Amino acid sequence: HADGRMLRALRQPDGFELAVIDTRAMPVIFGAMRDAETRDGLFWGEVVRVETSTQVLVNGRYPMRVGGKYLGLLAVTVQIDQLSRLLDTAADALGGRAFVLYGERLVLAHRRLIEGVALAPGELLPEMRQIGDPVLDALAGGAAETPRETAFEARTGIRLLTAGGRQYALLLQTLTGYSDRPWHLGVYFPAA
Predict the structure, then answer these.
(1) C-alpha dist (Å) from residue 48 to 39, 53, 65
(2) How confident is the model at residue 142 (pLDDT cuts 50, 70, 90)?
């Protein structure tokens, strides 16, 4: 709401929990509500840890108006551990591993984020090398042994690389419009 009150609905296993929260002393949430006054339509916010959660969240926001007057902000959030679990379940069913990079170096989703990764105070997301994944390590350091782009890679978009002494097939797609930075969605499989 434009006056700083937030109606929060949290999904629970047996329904949902509602609470009215005064956000005027919560700079992240209150700032998002004020920022939305000058925006139109659905937009994606930056990755944040808000004052009402211990989790890092991705979020979509929609300013609510009636007759042109700003009433408040509708926001939908997803915890990165839940995003990581969803992505891992889908990739695992196919025999692979998946990840999402937030920008060029930060990891937004990965199976290691389901349980959490130790971060320094003030850090929201780990860097690629903090995950302990040989493919991410290789991509981060440029140590992935890759031949020149082959006709196969140009035709299929599948990159063959060697990391940690093993060969992998990697698919990598860049998505824009979901945040203030591009997301790089990757999935890789052991190469036969």
Answers:
(1) 19, 10, 24
(2) low
